[in-house]
Structure formats: C-alpha cells, structure tokens
Amino acid sequence: MVNKLDKKFPKDFLWGGATAANQFEGGYNEGGKGLSIADVLTAGSHTVPRRITPTIEDGMYYPNHEAVDFYHRYKEDIKLLAEMGFKAFRMSIAWSRIFPNGDDPEPNEEGLKFYDNVFAELKKYNIEPIVTISHYETPLNLAIKYNGWVNRNLVDFYVRYCDVIFRRYKDIVKYWLTFNEINALTMPWGTFMAGAIMPNGNGEISNNETDNEQIRYQALHHQFIASAKAVKLGHEINKDFKIGCMIAYMCFYPLTCNPDDVLLAQQKDNLHNFLCSDVQVRGEYPGFAKRYFEEKNININMQENDEQILKEGKVDFYTFSYYMSNCVSADQNEEKIGGNISLGIKNPYLKASDWGWQIDPKGLRWTLNNIYYRYQIPIMVVENGLGAIDKVETDGTINDDYRIDYLREHIKQMKEAILDGVDLIGYTTWGCIDLVSAGTGEMKKRYGFIYVDRDDEGRGTLNRMKKKSFYWYKKVIETNGEDLE
Q1: Which residues of 136-166 are buried (b: 16+ CB within 10 A; e: fewer)?
Q2: What angle do CA 400, 405, 411 make, to 5 degrees?
Q3: Strands of 336-337's sheet, edge to edge?
Q4: Out of 75, 139, 208, 325, which residue is the most buried by the measure of CB atoms under 10 Å away?
Q5: How far is it, in rounded angstroms, from Cα 134 to Cα 107?
Q6: Sign of CA dihedral 152, 295, 136, 174
Q7: Cα–Cα dist 275/188, whole Å
Q8: In sequence order, what are the residues at sequence separation of 6 or more whose Cβ sits closer than 8 angstroms to the Cβ of residue 259?
Q9: DSSP secondary-structure letter at 11?
Q10: Residue 383 annotated as catalytic
Q11: CB-based burial of residue 295 (10 Å sphere; 0-12 exposed, 13-18 middle, 19+ buried)?
C-alpha cells in the first residue's frame, strides 16, 4: 500500500514558468533579427480573428513587434522570476534572431550573443532553462519562399539551426523541446502558426477541421523528420541532453455514454494527441493514423529512409500544455465552446473562463495518467494557466484570487497523479509574466504572476507589477508544493 503521506512532489521538481519569444521578447527588428511569421500577425480579439498580412502594412498594429520587451528587460524579468524562487524557466529561441531568413549560410552572431546573456543571467540565479527550439516563429522568408513546412527543404534549415544552438549552448542548456505544440498541425488553426504555410484569401485563420488536410499532414511529416534528426544530432553533441516533444493536449470527453460519443472521443484523442506523440516517442506512425490517411485520401510523401530516421530520433521525455477539457458528441447540434486550438461542446458540470475555456483540474490528472501509462517516460506540464482580465486597484495591488484558485486546484491534481505513479518532473505555468496572446493578440487576456502595463492598442509604460499570485506561487515553490493556501 502507498502511504498518503508520500503524496509529495520530488525534491528536485522543476517549478517555474513558461514564455515564447514571439509573444514576450519584442525587439522584432533589432540585433540583426529577421521577420518571423508572428511579425505579420495583426491584433485581434475574442470575437475578431487575427489577420495574416504578407508584409507589414502601414497603420496596422502588430502586437508581437514589441510584445512586453523582454529583449531589453531580461535582467529585470529574470530577477523577478528568481525572487519567486523559480527552479526552471521555459523559453524559446527566436529562429529568425539566429538565422534572419532561415536559409542564411551563416548565423547571426548578435542574436547568439543575446541568448548568451539571457542564459548567463539564468545561471546567476540557478534557474534551469528549458528551451523550445521552434515556437510558432518560423522565419517569414521560409513561409514566403518555400511555403513553410510543406517544403522538405525546411528540414535541413531547421537541423542547421539546431546544430548551431546545440553547439553554442551545449554546456548551458540541458532540456530542449523540438517543436511547440507540434500537433497543432492536425488542426487548421496550425496551418500558418505551426506550419508557416501561407494562407489564401483574406488572411484569416480557419477553424474548419477538414481544411488543407493534405498539406497539413505533409508539413507535419517534415516536422517529425526534423525533430528526429535534431534528437539524434543533439545526443551526438552532448549525450546528457534531454530532448522532448511538446503536445497541446486536447482532453476529450464523450458528452454521453452513447457508444458513438465514446468512440468519437477516443478517435479525437488518437488523431489530435497521440498521432504526434506516438511518432515522436515510439518512432513510428500508429495504425489508426494510417487508416485515417487512407480513408481521407491523404498521401504522405516519404523518402526511403524516413522510417529509420523516426526510429533513431525518439524523444527522451514528454511535455504538454493543458488548459481545459472539451466534450465531443456525434450530435452536431450541441452547443460549441472555444478553447486552446480545438473547439468542443459545453460541459454542464464545469465553469468556464472569460474566454469560454472550461476549467477542469481533474482533467489534468486524467491526462497525466493517460499519457504516462501509454509511454512510461518522464513528463513535464510546460503550459497551464488562466487567461483573465486583471484589475489594478488604486493602491497598486492586483488581487487575482481566481488565478490562484485555478492553479491551486491543478497542482492538487498533479499531486494525485504522482500518487497514481506518474513520473512528473516539472511544472511551468504559462505566461508567468503577462505577454501577448497567441490566439487573439490581446494583452488583456493575462496569465502572469507579474503584471505588465500594456494594453491591446500598445499603450502603456511596460512597467512590471507583482500580483497577489506572485507571492502565493513563491510560497508554493518554497514548500515544494506542500503549502497551497
């Protein structure tokens, strides 16, 4: 029997937070950086989609350009993370800061030096970097010139980029993630954001699940090959590297006990979650994917040694984002709700955030078990959090008890999962410092422990302010997850 008193986080558990360069860094045209696909995304809102413009248009606001200016404020920001007691900081390297056009023959030394400085600052406070190599910021030139990941040439460009950063930071960075939310390409939303595939028409991002499946899955295959080659290369450069996948876990429940609903939930779990991780963790396409491709007339163009490449490039650990759960039903008339990447059906047992994302801490425990007992490798939760509108009181305080409640309940369920036997090694909350929303381009949809004075129109001082949750999370880390009150 397991003693209930053993329900504790491991003593070396990696507590921290997560960001992405394109949403956080700014300095979009400084230090030799080229344009990325994020730099041509306009502002949007919960009701008005972001638009993709082929070039930067005069008079249009692009919130990712300055974001929250980590580029100039990294020392201040990392000091704040250290004050909270962070053990780990998940960040991404902006590919176009290292290779401005993506296909350049030589890297940009000024960009490499910027990350030298960031990593040195993290080391100063003993904060472990967890680096995402590609996080929705493919160099724009690769999208325009090659149509993104549909073109196999991007595999070589990506591996060359990996070779440079692996060698540069081989004694500084231990944990690497090859592609952020790689399974986004199983959804139309990921066509541009994840696949760097240029849109047709008005530049709006589609939510029609069957749009562009042929090109999306071909692009995804090229990312699988790139990831596998990067894993093999990384292990050759430093055998101590730990290189992981990163999945946007879409937790699907059947709406009813109707067998059609149950089967549909399983099929969506397979297609949108496990297809990608089966390839990256097990090194081969699962049978259900092959059937889906055949039935949908999707033909993946593979080269002769691709299957061997996938086998030789299996990841060391599994990471994922978790924000919510969705219900699915074979009845198409059920009420739809929003979410991270996917749409679902309203769950009558759950409350939702201001953006309609259903709040389901127990779904995190279910997800952790579902993943771990499929793969039996270490797991990190590298994105989790509540996007909400925060109010600055007249005395300067920000009382985000709703965020504390959300995180507390999810951490409790992580404890339960550890007791279930899950090998959970880290937890980095999303947007630990307020940043630009990837989906909507808003600032008012805030996740952080640290408030940034910036609004949806780009106005504000960019000053940082500690929220109530800052002090709460500091206590959580100090007690290794024991004091959650």
Answers
A1: bbbbbbbbbebbbbbbbebbebbbbbbbbbb
A2: 125
A3: 251-254, 325-328, 344-345, 336-337
A4: 139
A5: 16
A6: negative
A7: 16
A8: none
A9: T
A10: yes
A11: exposed
CA distances from 401 to 297, 386, 389, 448, 466 (A): 50, 11, 12, 12, 13
How far is residue 384's CA from residue 432's CA, in Å, rounded to a whole number?
Answer: 10
Which CATH number belongs to the domain containing residue 225 in this structure? Answer: 3.20.20.80
Q: Which domain holds residue 85?
A: 4-478
Helix then strand count (H, E) for the chain reads 15, 14
| Residue 78 CB partners (closer than 8 Å, separation 6+) | 89, 118, 121, 122, 124, 125, 127
User: pTM of the predicted model, to two decimals?
Assistant: 0.96
Closest by alpha carbon to 411, among 373, 362, 351? Answer: 362
Residue 251 lies inside a defined structural domain of this protein: yes
Cβ–Cβ < 8 Å for 16, 127: yes
Residue at token pair 């990696």: 14
**One of 25, 121, 137, 181 is an active-site residue; which one?**
181
Which of these, 382, 432, 439, 390, lies nearest to 245 by C-alpha position?
382
**How far is it, in rounded angstroms, from Cα 6 to Cα 75?**
38
Per-residue tens of pLDDT for the chain, all 485 residues = 445 556 789 999 999 999 999 999 999 999 999 999 999 999 998 788 899 998 899 999 999 999 999 999 999 999 999 999 999 999 999 999 999 999 999 999 999 999 999 999 999 999 999 999 999 999 999 999 999 999 999 999 999 999 999 999 999 999 999 999 999 999 998 999 999 998 875 555 555 555 689 999 999 999 999 999 999 999 999 999 999 999 999 999 999 999 999 999 999 999 999 999 999 999 999 999 999 999 999 999 999 999 999 999 999 999 999 999 999 999 877 666 665 556 688 899 999 998 889 999 999 999 999 999 999 999 999 999 999 999 999 999 999 999 999 999 999 999 999 999 999 999 999 999 999 999 899 999 999 999 999 999 999 999 999 999 999 999 999 999 999 99
Among candidate residues 121, 128, 137, 383, the one labeled active-site is: 383
> What is the number of structural domains in the chain?
1
Residue with tokens 């640290």: 450
Contact status, residue 94 vs residue 36, Cβ threshold 8 Å: yes
Q: Does residue 322 contact residue 406 with C-beta atoms inside 8 Å? A: no
Domain membership flag for residue 483: no
Q: Does the residue 221 lie in any domain?
A: yes
Q: Does 130 reside within a domain?
A: yes
Active site residue 416: no
Q: From residue 60, give the alpha-carbon distance in Å to each of 51, 117, 461.
A: 10, 32, 20
Read off the tokens for 424. 């959970």
CA separation for the pair 112, 99 (Å, rounded): 10
